[in-house]
Amino acid sequence: MAFSLKNALTNVGHYVNGLFSSVPYFLGYLGRLISCLFVFLKKGKAVRRILIMQLLFTFIEALPVVCVLSAAIGGAIYLIGYSFLSSIGYSSLIYKLLVTIVIQELGPILVAFIVTARSATAIATELGTMVVTHQIEAYVATGIDPVAHLVAPRFVGVSLSTFFLNLYFAFCGILGPVLLSYFVSNVTTYGYFQGIFSALTISAILTSLIKSLLFGVIISISATYCGFAVERASTEVPVAGINAVGKSILGVILFDVFIIAVPYLVG
């Protein structure tokens, strides 16, 4: 028992030591990425091509999944929420419920999870494979900065894709219950959208936009950082993909809780 406890404490100590020893490297990587973003638009067609391909994979190809998921969730929330709120005499609150859940809270985090599952693993394994196959060394040897050429377009592409996918999620999630509102609650399309727009606030819109952009930044940084953290062995590549997903989800959840808590702490 004592031996097991000692081993556990030793493993925790190694983990904490490794965690703190990687902080300077991460801060340096983050600083280098930020400096490369300022010269990103001055690069040639090769970098813009990477950006376009990243937008295609992360944004365009994810649209069907986001459309079906958001419409289904919006419809389910309307059915369940209207039934419950009608039973207690507050059916008009269904619009506030839809805006809060679909636009402000659930939309950004679900989109972040979709982007994490589809893109974070792909980016991390792609960059990790490039490290193992010495392609990154080839970039450096020819005078090309791999951060500016590979990371910056992926950072911009994932961040923009998460932002626009969140807008698309909100649109489909609000549009999904339109037919249900007519059959379930006998509300006309005009009455439905009138209720939605009356419940929609600037605060809800800004919170949703800030979350989506911040989540995209977190996912892109986590994925590229984990990809470049691969050293020599090819067995590290799938581990990099797993780490990218774990770090992205953890960062998204922590920042989501922080953003939710800020108004209550300030107030």
Give a verbal description of the structure.
The chain is mostly helical and 267 residues long. The protein contains 11 helices and no strands. Helix 5 (94-132) runs antiparallel to helix 7 and helix 5 runs antiparallel to helix 11 (236-266). It starts with a helix and ends with a helix.
Features:
267 residues; 86% helix
Mean of the pLDDT scores?
83
Q: How would the global form be characterised?
A: elongated
Strand content: under 5%
Give the beta-strand count.
0
Summarize the helices and strands and which ones pair or pack.
Layout lengths: L1 H20 L1 H16 L6 H16 L2 H25 L6 H39 L2 H7 L4 H30 L2 H8 L3 H11 L2 H27 L7 H31 L1
Summarize the structure.
This protein is mostly helical and 267 residues long.
